[in-house]
């Protein structure tokens, strides 16, 4: 009997509590979170993923068939301009250079010999000319015969002919020497290409060759990123590209940055879209966009980032959280305004929106009190108890 009384007592307490709650709802109204309409700034952004890449990088290729003799650096290593990265060896080229040096030496010797012979003949021509002058005087005085005079003339003519031939031989020898020297220069320049050097201060991004490996022309030997110059490449959906312009601000975030963000600027928009496959296997048309990164912070080439390109911004406009605005069945936008603790459904006109806020262009005034959750089922004139954020 006592047990039944106890059960009845508990039931009575519960009913009393429910009744009290109902009375509170009836007289005090349902508690709802509200906020006041205030001016603010709203920014529309095109958001997508991207990755960090060097603003300037250099792909260094082999220029000839060769064997990798030494690899002197490692991937990720900082290098200076002119620092040797890889040395190659081309034995055929070494033989050609040796042969050409021998040919050049022979051409130089031949040129020296031709020059010496030419100088001797010039001296002989001078002597022959002096002798001819004496013979002319003696012949005029009748001291020598005509035969002796003609012999002196013939000697001068012979020296002149020999001098002409030797001059031609010297020109030929000099031409051969110049040709050999030019050929040797080309071969030595080709030999110089076997020493692969960094074109700039920077970091080695890729080093795909190994010691003793045989490479051919256009084989990638190394990739070097110029120091301190990074940028972000983001592939933006072509449908979102209409508002993206060069010079617009871009906010960059990444896990490595934590809560911090970096600021860049749209530098280049590619002139054509490319087919890309999404993570879900959907083929999309995307346009590469390059964003400057003046201060990369801890970001390194290859890091994935999130990019938000700010395409439109409005300051000093009335804004509300997007969840405060609902769309009716006929496509109209409306909010629940609290006036004297009662709900009033009010149609509004909206403008720019971002991921959090929406601009109110008509239907509300600054200071109006609006229910934060536009999805609450609150009938017109429902009595509520506003709870401000």
TrEMBL record:
The chain crosses the membrane at residues 7-27. The keyword RNA-binding does not apply. The keyword Membrane applies. This is Macrolide export protein MacA. Residues 319-375 form the CzcB-like C-terminal circularly permuted SH3-like domain. Its main location: other. GO terms for cellular component: cell envelope; membrane. GO terms for molecular function: transmembrane transporter activity. InterPro entries: BSH_YknX-like, CzcB_C, RND_pump_MFP, UPF0194_transport. Residues 67-206 form the YknX-like barrel-sandwich hybrid domain. The lineage of its organism: unclassified sequences, metagenomes, ecological metagenomes. Residues 97-138 form a coiled coil. It is found in: Cell envelope. Keywords: Coiled coil, Membrane, Transmembrane, Transmembrane helix.
């Amino acid at each position: 009997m006592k047990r039944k009384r106890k059960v009845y007592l508990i039931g009575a307490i519960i009913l009393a509590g429910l009744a009290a709650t109902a009375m509170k709802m009836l007289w005090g109204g349902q508690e709802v979170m509200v906020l006041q309409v205030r001016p603010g700034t709203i920014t529309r952004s095109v958001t997508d993923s991207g990755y960090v890449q060097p603003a300037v990088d250099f792909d260094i290729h082999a220029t000839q068939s060769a064997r990798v003799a030494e690899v002197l650096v490692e991937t990720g290593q900082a290098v200076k301009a002119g620092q040797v990265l890889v040395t190659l060896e081309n034995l055929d080229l070494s033989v050609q250079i040796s042969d050409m040096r021998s040919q050049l030496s022979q051409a130089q010797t031949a040129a020296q010999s031709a020059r010496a012979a030419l100088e001797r003949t010039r001296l002989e021509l001078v002597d022959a000319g002096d002798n001819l002058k004496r013979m002319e005087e003696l012949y005029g005085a009748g001291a020598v015969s005509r035969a002796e005079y003609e012999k002196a003339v013939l000697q001068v003519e012979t020296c002149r002919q020999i001098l002409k031939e030797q001059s031609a031989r010297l020109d030929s020898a000099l031409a051969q020497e110049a040709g050999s020297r030019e050929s040797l220069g080309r071969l030595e320049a080709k030999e110089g290409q076997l020493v692969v050097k960094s074109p700039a201060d920077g970091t080695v991004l890729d080093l795909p060759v190994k010691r003793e490996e045989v490479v051919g022309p256009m084989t990638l030997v190394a990739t070097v990123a110029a120091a301190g110059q990074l940028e972000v490449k983001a592939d933006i959906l072509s449908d979102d590209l209409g508002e993206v312009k060069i010079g617009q601000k871009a906010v960059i975030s990444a896990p490595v940055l934590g809560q911090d963000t970096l600021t860049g600027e749209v530098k280049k928009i590619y002139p054509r879209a490319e087919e890309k496959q999404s993570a879900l296997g959907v083929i999309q048309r995307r346009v590469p966009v390059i964003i400057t990164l003046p201060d990369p912070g801890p970001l390194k080439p290859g890091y994935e980032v999130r990019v938000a390109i700010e395409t439109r911004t409005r300051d000093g406009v009335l804004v509300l959280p997007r969840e405060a605005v609902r769309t009716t069945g006929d496509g109209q936008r409306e909010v629940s305004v609290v006036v004297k603790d009662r709900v009033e459904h009010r149609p509004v006109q909206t403008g720019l929106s971002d991921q959090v806020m929406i601009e109110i262009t008509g239907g509300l005034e600054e200071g109006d009190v609006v229910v934060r959750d536009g999805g609450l089922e609150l009938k017109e004139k429902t009595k509520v108890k506003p709870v401000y954020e």
